[in-house]
Amino acid sequence: MNLDSVLELKAILSAEFMPRAAESIWTRMYARVMHSNVPPSIGLGVAPRGEGDYALAVRIQDPALEKNPLVEQLSQRAKGEVDIRVVGLPRISESGACHPPQRPVGIGCSTGHVH
Hints:
3 helices, three-stranded mixed beta sheet, single chain, alpha+beta
């Protein structure tokens, strides 16, 4: 599938199947980290498949969602051109990933905090 087609399909499916997801992504992420009873979610994007070829990226947080009817509908609407991956739940590092100070600064480290 070409890039324009995937982007158009993603926009259509996002509006149709997940109207509240974009509005509440930060609320859901915060709630998931703070309270483990928030249900896992599904995200849509674009996945490269080769030179000039793209697929609808479907990212799920729980392996059980692979059999979810919504994921199957998304796959059918994309005519099977989907890249489904389990990404897991966001986690906060218990050890404080950037302490002691890290040089050079690593991915995920804050430069705005002084200890």
